Amino acid sequence: MRNIKFRGLTGDFHIVDGELQPSAFEIMNVVGREKGIGFWTEKYGISNQPNPNTTTLYSAKQDDLGAILWPGQSTAVPKGWEIPTGESKLRVGVPVKGGLEQFVKVTIDPQTKAVKASGFCVEVFEEVMRSMPYSVPVEYIPFPIPLGENLPNYDDFVDQIFSGKLDAVVGDVTILAKRSKHVDFSLPFTESGVTTVVPVKQGDKKNRWIFLKPVKKELWVTTAMSFVFIGTAIWVLEHQVNKEFQGPRYKQVGMIFWFSFSTLVFAHKERVISNLSKFVIIVWVFVVLVLTSSYTASLTSMLTVQQLQPTVTDLNDLIKNGEYVGVQDGSYVAGMLYNMKFERTKIRNYSTLEEYDEALTKGSRNGGVAAIVDELPFIRIFLAKYCGKYTIIGPTYKTAGFGFVSSLISKAFSRGSPLVPDVSRALLGVTESETMMRITDKLFGKGTECSQRDGNLAASDSLALDSFIGLFTIAGVSALSALLIFFCSFLYQSKDILKSDFSIQQKFSALAKAFYEEKEKPSKESQNPDEGNAQTMQEFHPQTPETENACSPNQNIFTSEEGFTTTEPGSPVNDSSITEGSAEG
């Protein structure tokens, strides 16, 4: 046996020192036809030659070997398929329905029965497949979604993966929690959420009450109350020292309203004497200036800018009024509305953008609907086509958006297959590049016009109290501070009344009487020149009490029985009475 040598199927047969000598092996790449890429020997390991001319053992590099080709003539190592073969194709389901073909459109050749898919979702999917690091052949399989209730819908469409009839799903399929129990979703590739679209109506510029619309009700009420409060504060501060704020009670009440509201046009002619009053008026005039300027700007905008107002402002109004609402056929949105307490009889199904427009144009009372509730991608397409007639209202109810779907347990993929993360990574690369923007603009347009119109809508809102609460706070604090200083001074001057033994009621009566009484020494600004001179003469030439009584301006020197008329100081003299007196004399 030791001397026997021969070449067998696995190499040379030779026993040395009682051991069979190992043979060299050639490494083959078999894709259709075999192709050698290197050799393996026990002495040298993997090398490009069976007996390499090298003294270094196991020193071969991958670049020294032949290229390894995978199915699809790709040099990248496949990740998604367990058994990649050229005959295995990814069975991708695409929905077939009657409308909204901007996302998915399926055409079948009548002769060859070949299925061709197009639309936004399909273009994004094919771009993602091209970005994958390995080749994934795809076969589109149509899945009809008929119109109407109690018929196959998108949930049934996704369940085709769970049953093993499909390997993946591409289309306007929203990522939902109940669907993710049986299938894997890729990352979303659209904006998410469900929203409401309603018609808009033109603002009536010929409305006789349009001058009230620039300001909301609560701001009107707050402004009116502030005018009355400021007028009352000025009256309290000026009553004792300014004759303009004295007199009969009806005159004083009229002065409160007149003085405060005249600041609107800065037309008040009454002079104020108290420094506290001047401080309050300075602050209040600034507030009035801001209010009038804002009101003028808002009214000008309403009269010159085209006003578009939504017919409905909230879904709760639709429920309360029993209005009809439209949804897309086969969509899960109808179930969401049921959970929001919408009656089933108040929900109508539509399948095309034209049907949406027709239903909203008719209105809820004429066989149409008052609003359409759908996912944001569909609403964006609808507004791009009819942006001058409709607008979005209310909150956006968040969802996860559209995503590609693959099976967790189907035959094509094992649980935890890396195909889904690979698709998500490739999808991120597509969405972050200009490719996604190019696809979006190609199918849906840029929508700049609608964005500008929405901006005009927001800019023409009525003025609210929240925008001016700071101004009213400053004016209120200023007036209250002035009143506090005034009453502290008044109580200090009336300390004798407070220290008296009168009852509380008597003290209040005495304080009120002291407040209503005119001060003995009014300020010079409230006096006329003759009165001021007379008072000055009295200060320099003191008189006895008898003389004071005789010369008092309030004491009638002559009576009417004596043939003389009584004339108040400063009153004009009647020439006719003087002439009669001279004639009688």
Give an overview in words.
There is one protein chain. Residues 80-86, 406-415, 455-460 and 520-585 have low confidence and may be disordered. Among the domains are: 5-64, no CATH class; 87-190 and 403-443, D-Maltodextrin-Binding Protein, domain 2 (3-Layer(aba) Sandwich), CATH 3.40.190.10; 210-306 and 466-487, no CATH class; 527-584, no CATH class. Strands 13, 14, 15, 16, 17 and 18 form a 6-stranded mixed sheet that branches. Helix 1 packs across helix 10 (419-432), helix 1 (120-131) packs antiparallel against helix 11 (434-444) and helix 3 runs parallel beside helix 13. It is elongated. A hairpin with a 3-residue loop joins strand 5 (33-41) and strand 6 (45-47). It is built from 18 helices and 19 strands. The termini are far apart. It has helices at 120-131, 154-162, 217-238, 249-262, 275-304, 315-321, 333-339, 353-362, 376-386, 419-432, 434-444, 448-459, 469-493, 495-499, 504-516, 529-540, 545-551, 575-584; strands spanning 5-8, 11-16, 19-20, 25-31, 33-41, 45-47, 90-96, 105-108, 115-118, 138-144, 168-169, 183-185, 194-202, 308-310, 325-328, 347-350, 371-375, 390-397, 405-407. The longest helix is centred in the middle third of the chain and has 30 residues, at 275-304. It has 585 residues and is of the alpha+beta class. May form heteromers. It is a multi-pass membrane protein. The chain crosses the membrane at residues 219-237, 249-267, 279-297, 468-492. Residues 525-538, 544-585 have a biased composition (Polar residues). This is Ionotropic glutamate receptor C-terminal domain-containing protein.
